[in-house]
């Protein structure tokens, strides 16, 4: 059984002056899984995710998408490769409506000269497609011409998730998608993530919230001191152990319990 | 998640143009009742002529304020553009039409310079345009040697000519200004570029992460604003019949007044360019109406000031409600 990771990284290094944020970090995302990335503050989670989504360029190391080396110069580059990111609070433009937010940066124009010469937007088609994507994720259909600032936090995050799902062909990365939300709204976002997984798209979930991680994750990537220190199966560990590994109180052999990754050629 | 359909009254209230439009209508009704001359085609044509220059400057100002910037240099840039186009034509350096083109280009170049300083060196728009205000003001006086340029060829004053519209004389310049408002309403509301301007004003980070090239967008906004200031220069020259190095010295603040009265938020990302037209008309109607009522001009300034503070207060309060 050989499975190629959808997204993999080897030996990523990122330095900011004297601070080394990534110190030879590895990363593997398998097809169709929800991979949780956890780590203490300063462990290099954010730098890792930024490198994988084109927001920063690593100083060393390589990133492979479907086994082929890629280099993302900016977030747009990563998006063109089918990697979509949902940020915890930088997701949507508040005064613009839902459909405009869904298509921000990749608007649809009317066919024919109206679109090519007069650059006229096809607002009707963008509304219809937005409605379809929202319905697919069972995000209650509401007026798509409403400004997103009139929505609740959970609904806003719903718009961001629906946008990511609509355009992601490879990977969805969610950076603390529930950090700013209440209990009920977090539940709604978790349900959405499950629906995304059910459609076969792999999800990278960065989270501090251990119950959420254990509810959703197929595997857990533990980041510590700028590198991956463990890949865990949540079924084999309890939360206390995982937290202990994360903080360095408990040491594990690197990359235990990841047969698929070994088959893919891990040392 | 429940379905929340915005009801019509709610949508009207959240549309930023309703307040300014109501204020404009109320002012028109008030002055119609209190003066006999106010309600006439000729008077309205005069009001539009009086506001079209500041109104056109305010189109560029609206673009920049929508990106959460501000432009203090627009009146000065317009004065420079006016001197360039009149002097080149009158001195016989260029044929009149090319002189106009050179004036427009000069204004666009100053806009581009503002945009480059704001993006490439990350300077605050307030400081960049304050500096540019002084630079361009000085250049205008150096180039013109403090002389007003007179005896303009016909091409430069053509937009000051009038045509009959339903028994009223309307200047071509007024028509140009109104067409510009409609053009920018289209660009901001119906094209991706316009949506990106709003997104940028909402949050530069959201815009960038959505794949919008924010630096290029910002530079395009300042450059296009500069070009619009050039058109304002042509309107001014055609209206006054001279190239005046002293022109436009308070127009930067007057254009901000029009934008704010039109319901556009100084915090960026919210507002309509048609609102700016309404805002400019509010100022024009108040000035004109109070003048007809025989109120001294200093009270017109007083009332304009109070209106601006009221408009910003409404903006701030409505933002607080939606947050």
Short characterization:
The complex is a heterodimer of chains A (267) and B (323). Chain A is α/β, with parallel strands linked by helices and 267 residues long. Chain A is 33% helix and 23% strand.
What does this structure look like?
The complex is a heterodimer of chains A (about 270) and B (about 325). Chain A contains ten helices and ten strands. Chain A has about 270 residues and is an alpha/beta fold. Chain A has a domain at about 30-55 and about 75-95 and about 145-255: P-loop containing nucleotide triphosphate hydrolases (Rossmann fold, 3-Layer(aba) Sandwich), CATH 3.40.50. In chain A, strand 4 (about 60-65) and strand 5 form a beta hairpin. Chain B has about 325 residues and is mainly α. Chain B has 14 helices and two strands. Chain B has helices spanning about 10-15, 20-35, 40-65, 75-90, 95-120, 125-145, 155, 170-190, 190-200, 205-210, 215-240, 250-260, 275-290, 295-320; strands at about 160-165, 170. A two-stranded antiparallel ribbon of chain B has the order 1-2. In chain B, helix 5 runs antiparallel to helix 6 and helix 8 crosses helix 9. The interface of A and B includes residues 75, 79, 92, 104 and 152 of A. Chain B: This is ABC transporter permease. Chain B: It is found in: Cell membrane.
Q: What fraction, in percent, of the residue positions of chain A are helical?
A: 25-40%
Q: Cα-atom Rg of chain B, whole angstroms?
A: 20 Å
Strand content of chain A: 15-25%
From the 3D structure, determine the CATH topology of chain B.
ABC transporter involved in vitamin B12 uptake, BtuC
Uncertain runs of chain B are 1-6
Biggest β-sheet description of chain B:
2 strands, antiparallel
Counting DSSP E segments of at least 2 residues, the number of strands of chain B comes to: 2
SSE order of chain A? EEEHEEHEHHHHEHEHEEHH
The CATH H-level homologous superfamily of one domain in chain A: P-loop containing nucleotide triphosphate hydrolases
Oligomer: heterodimer
The CATH architecture designation of one domain in chain A is 3-Layer(aba) Sandwich
Q: What's the level 1 CATH class of chain B?
A: Mainly Alpha
List the chains of the largest interface with their residue counts: A-B, 38 and 29 residues
> In one word, what is the shape of chain B?
globular
Report the total helices of chain B.
Answer: 14
Distance between the termini of chain B: 20 Å
């Amino acid at each position: 059984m050989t499975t190629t990771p959808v997204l993999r990284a080897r030996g990523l290094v990122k330095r900011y002056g004297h601070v080394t944020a990534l110190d030879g970090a590895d990363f593997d995302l398998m097809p169709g899984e929800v991979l949780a990335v956890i780590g203490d503050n300063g462990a290099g989670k954010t730098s890792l995710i930024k490198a994988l989504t084109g927001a920063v360029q690593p100083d060393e190391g390589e990133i492979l998408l479907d086994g082929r080396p890629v280099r993302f110069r900016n977030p747009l580059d990563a998006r063109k490769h089918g990697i979509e990111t949902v940020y915890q609070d930088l997701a949507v433009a508040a005064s613009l409506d839902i459909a405009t937010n869904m298509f921000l940066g990749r608007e649809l124009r009317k066919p024919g000269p109206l679109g090519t010469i007069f650059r006229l937007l096809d607002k009707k088609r963008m509304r219809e497609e937005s409605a379809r994507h929202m319905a697919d994720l069972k995000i209650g259909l509401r007026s798509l011409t409403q400004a997103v600032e009139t929505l609740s936090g959970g609904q806003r995050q719903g718009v961001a998730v629906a946008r990511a799902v609509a355009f992601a062909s490879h990977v969805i990365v969610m950076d603390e998608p529930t950090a700013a939300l209440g209990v009920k709204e977090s539940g709604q976002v978790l349900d959405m993530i499950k629906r995304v997984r059910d459609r076969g798209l792999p999800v990278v979930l960065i989270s501090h919230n251990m119950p959420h991680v254990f509810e959703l994750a197929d595997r857990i990537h533990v980041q510590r001191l700028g590198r991956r220190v463990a890949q865990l199966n949540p079924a084999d560990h309890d939360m206390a152990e995982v937290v202990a590994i994360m903080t360095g109180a408990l040491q594990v052999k690197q990359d235990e319990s990841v047969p698929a990754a070994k088959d893919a050629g891990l040392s | 998640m429940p379905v929340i359909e915005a009801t019509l009254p709610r949508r009207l209230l959240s549309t930023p143009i309703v307040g300014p439009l109501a204020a404009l209508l109320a002012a028109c009704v008030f002055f119609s009742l209190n003066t006999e001359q106010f309600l006439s085609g000729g008077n309205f044509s005069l009001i539009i002529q009086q506001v079209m220059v500041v109104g056109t400057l305010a189109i560029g100002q609206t673009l920049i304020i929508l990106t959460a910037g501000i432009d203090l240099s627009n009146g000065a840039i317009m004065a420079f553009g006016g001197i360039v186009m009149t002097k080149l034509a009158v001195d016989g350096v260029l044929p009149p039409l090319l002189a106009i083109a050179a004036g427009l280009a000069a204004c666009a170049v100053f806009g581009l310079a503002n945009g480059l300083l704001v993006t490439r060196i990350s300077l605050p728009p307030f400081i960049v345009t304050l500096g540019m205000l002084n630079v361009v003001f000085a250049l205008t006086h150096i180039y013109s040697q403090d002389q007003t340029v007179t005896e303009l060829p016909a091409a430069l004053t053509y937009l000051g000519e009038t045509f009959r519209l339903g028994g009223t004389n309307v200047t071509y310049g007024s028509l140009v200004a109104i067409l510009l408002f409609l053009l920018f309403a289209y660009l901001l509301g119906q094209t991706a570029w316009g949506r990106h301007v709003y997104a940028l004003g909402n949050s530069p980070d959201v815009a960038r992460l959505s794949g919008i090239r924010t630096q290029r967008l910002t530079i395009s906004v300042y450059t296009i604003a500069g070009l619009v200031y050039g058109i304002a220069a042509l309107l001014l020259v055609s209206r006054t019949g001279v190239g005046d190095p002293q022109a436009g010295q308070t127009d930067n603040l007057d254009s901000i007044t029009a934008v704010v009265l039109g319901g556009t938020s100084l915090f960026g990302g919210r507002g309509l360019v048609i609102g700016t037209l309404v805002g400019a008309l509010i100022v024009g109607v108040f000035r004109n109406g109070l003048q007809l009522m025989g109120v001294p001009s200093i009270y017109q300034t007083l009332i304009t000031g109070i209106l601006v503070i009221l408009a910003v207060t409404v903006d701030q309060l409505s933002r607080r409600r939606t947050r």
